[in-house]
Amino acid sequence: MSATTREIRLASRPDGEPTDDNFEIAETPIPEPGPGEVLVRNSYLSVDPYMRGRMRDVKSYLPPFEVGKAMDGGAVGQVVASNDGPFEEGAWIQHQAGWREHSVVDGGYPADPAVAPISTALGVLGMPGLTAYAGLTDVAPIEEGQTVFVSAAAGAVGSAAGQIARLRGCRTIGSAGSPEKVAWLTDELGFDAAFSYKEAPVADALREHAPKGIDVYFDNVGGDHLSAALARMRLHGKIALCGAIAQYNEETPQPGPDNFLAVLPLRLTIRGFIVLDHFGLMGRFIDEVGGWVRSGDLRYRETIVDGIENMPAAFNGLLSGDNIGKMLVKVGPDPA
Fold first, then answer.
1. Angle of the 127-134 helix axis to the 156-167 helix axis, nearest 10
2. What is the mean pLDDT of the chain?
3. pLDDT at residue number 171
4. What pLDDT sits at residue 253?
């Protein structure tokens, strides 16, 4: 192990789309774990849409990143030293001190490389998968035979959400940003229908693919997707507001849908949610979704970028829709 390690710091707050100047890669001595802590050699780091909001100096459900300090987020790696910490040396864990090659933590979740590739602890069997699961079980519960629409369906959360709906007997429709992604949704993941929002207006596509309406909408995008979904919702329909990636680089918030009053006559239920409030589902989620992953009934894909120095580019690529499935940055070895 070298005597130094690298981390990504927020150099300045972006105005619109982040640029390379907003990030700094810094070399620092490998830290020593204090009492009750462990040192983790990270293997994979996660970039996620919510991180864009934390680059603003505004109060939210998570504190903003501090300029001049290392950013953080999901990571998975192996414990290489323990100072009476919660995990033994050699254990693989998932934690929230990412954007670093090495992390010192006092907690986290076990990650078992015997169950699935260790990278899945940050994707289909991690926070994105749990987000999809919570959205369709607790927030906007689905029922067999319903029609479910998922936006950004080729991303880590959307691809899991659509497959969970399918496996529970629903008709699933997904939107994505390219013909390649649309083909992946229908040909490999089993979506009943999918369309590219870059090739046709979302409203037109939903009229074609959901002629009888939508029972549940899992919203990862906001904007025109939310407006189009509102126009197709059925009586007593449900909408889970998970994200609004179309607007994350906008410095001025966009006005809400002009057809929002559809909520009243249709008696819609619209609920925003944060996955942090649903970690109590983790055991049930791992049992059910983990079983589908092991059997091959629920498939996933990962877009992996090598090297921590490329993490800012991976983050911007995520916001631009360059990924299929989960976007990860590989910074260390896989399990032997």
1. 50
2. 95
3. 98
4. 66
CATH number of the domain located at residue range(s) 4-123+300-330 in this protein: 3.90.180.10
What is the per-residue pLDDT for 252?
67
Matching residue, tokens 């904007």: 223
CA atoms of 331 and 308, how far apart (whole Å): 6
Chain region(s) in the chain for CATH 3.40.50.720:
135-277
3-class SS letters over the chain: CCCEEEEEEECCCCCCCCCHHHEEEEEEECCCCCCCEEEEEEEEEECCCHHHHHCCCCCCCCCCCCECCECCCCEEEEEEEEECCCCCCCCEEEECCCCECEEEECCCEECCCCCCCHHHHHCCCCHHHHHHHHHHHHHCCCCCCCEEEECCCCEHHHHHHHHHHHHCCCEEEEEECCHHHHHHHHHHCCCCEEEECCCCCHHHHHHHHCCCCEEEEEECCCHHHHHHHHHHEEEEEEEEECCCHHHCCCCCCCCCCCCHHHHHHHCCEEEECCHHHHHHHHHHHHHHHHHHHHHCCCCCCEEEEECHHHHHHHHHHHHHCCCCEEEEEECCCCCC
Share of the chain above pLDDT 70, in %: 97
* 8 Å CB contact between 87 and 79: yes
Q: Characterize 111-123 residue by residue with b for buried, 16 or more Cβ atoms within 10 angstroms of its Cβ, and e for exposed.
A: bebeebbbbbbbb
Distance CA 119, CA 115 (A): 11
CB 39 within 8 A of CB 104: yes
Architecture of domain 135-277: 3-Layer(aba) Sandwich (3.40)
pLDDT at residue 244 in the model: 83
**pLDDT greater than 50 at residue 1:** no
Domain ranges in the chain with CATH number 3.90.180.10 = 4-123+300-330
